[in-house]
Amino acid sequence: MSVVSSELQRLRRMGIKEIAEAAGVSPSAVSLALNNRPGVSEETRARVVSIAESMRYRHKGTEVPSGFAARRGTIRFLKVIKHGRVLNENHKVFVADYIEGMAKGCREHRFYLQFVSHNTDRIEEALPKSKAIRGVIVLGTELEESDLEMFCDLHIPAVFLDTYHEHLPLDFVDMDNFDAMHKIVARLYECGHREIGYVRCNIRTRNLAMREEAFLAALARFGLAHDPEFIFGVDSTYHGAYRDMLEILKAGKKLPTAFFPGNDIIAYGCLKAMKEFGLHIPGDVSVIGFDDLPTSAVMDPPLTTIRVATRQMGAMAVELLAVRLEQPDIPPMKLQIGVDFIERQSVKRIAASPAEVPGAG
Fold it and tell me: Is 265 left (phi over 0), alpha (psi -120 to 50) or beta?
């Protein structure tokens, strides 16, 4: 085999690997999908082909699919992993949904989509330098305000996904955390819960910070007292949340009738600790998560949670970038997209206290 042929095969393997990472599937699943073979679902096949198309992947010497002559250039999706305590294996599906939405948006606006992942806490290393890139969509999950400020003087427009800062002169697309927390507290209140706890994690991402702020605002809206004893701190990972919640339970701390962990992963760890400690869910304590990761539907019990419109957010990020390219001087655009409340079996209805029953006393 010639050196040139070997290099071409290496580049093709790299393409499959990148598509697999973007789609949240294995390289073998990518091969099955692109070769139209059985063994993958139609949903997975469509996602893989969509991402391969937007990445300009060449399959058997032909781009998948053809017809890119009129494309308007390349935009880069930049995933920056600062520490991996939030962006890790557990959220691959979540990120893949963002990418699928962006791929759809790129087809509609005739852009190529390039996927780049940086594992670094030196954000300047991740700043795009190529003049061939027309714009960048940055996954801001683990980024702090100071990290985002580095993009303010970037030579190309940037849209930030999965984070939100009101006062930065940048474009954002994020889920509406205040809408989500209102839905959560409203449902628990409706079910008779008046002692509602919050499980915060030790990694303070912007979204998690906003959820805690929104949680406290929702309590006040329903006339519920904020009891600091019902705010618990755990690690951001599944195993860490399990370990820390088990320590909290062993310490004999008073528990509320319902908990809201900051996301599904934290909820999974807390549920494992609670059940190991002998608590019944939702018999002894109700739990609501956030993200609606696939495991939530098959938990024991299935987890009531918040579903985020990730595909729509990805597509909207492309939409904002297209507008920004055409109208560079318009004011910053900051979008928060509403969420869906997914009712399952981890919340129990309890009796209201006599003082809260009309006519009681």
Answer: alpha
Split at pLDDT 50, 70, 90, the class of 353 is low
CATH of the domain at 218: 3.40.50.2300
Please indicate, yes or no, if residue 208 is contained in any of the structural domains: yes
Question: What phi, psi does 134 have (nearest 5°)?
Answer: -85, -30
**pLDDT (tens digit per residue) in 223-250:** 999 999 999 999 999 999 999 999 999 9
Q: Is residue 89 part of a domain?
A: no
Integer Cα distance of 192 and 238 in angstroms: 29
Of residues 114, 2, 11, the one with CA closest to residue 59: 11
| Cα 238 → chain centroid | 16
Cα separation, 323 vs 332, in Å, equals: 11
Say if 202 falls within a structural domain: yes
Q: Which residues have C-beta within 8 Å of that of residue 290, sequence separation ≥ 6? A: 180, 211, 260, 261, 262, 263, 264, 267, 305, 306, 308
Q: 92-109 vs 3-23: helix axis angle to the nearest 10? A: 110
DSSP tag of 336: E
Token pair for 221: 């809206």
Instruction: Give the burial class of 82: count Cβ atoms within 10 A of its Cβ; 0-12 exposed, 13-18 middle, 19 or more buried.
Output: buried
Angle, vertex CA 85, rays to CA 185 and CA 265, nearest 5:
40
Indicate the number of domains in the chain. Answer: 1
CA torsion sign for 206, 212, 215, 220 is negative
CA 190-303-280 angle, to 5 degrees, is: 80
Pairwise CA distance, residues 200 & 117, whole Å? 27
Question: How is residue 7 written in tokens?
Answer: 């290099």
Domain carrying residue 205: 177-308+342-356
222 domain-assigned:
yes
Q: What are phi and psi of 341, to 5 degrees?
A: -90, 120
Q: Please tell me the least confidently modeled range out of 54-63, 114-123, 180-189, 216-225.
A: 54-63
% of the chain exceeding 70 in pLDDT: 87
Tens-place pLDDT, residues 152-185: 888 899 999 999 999 999 999 999 999 999 999 9
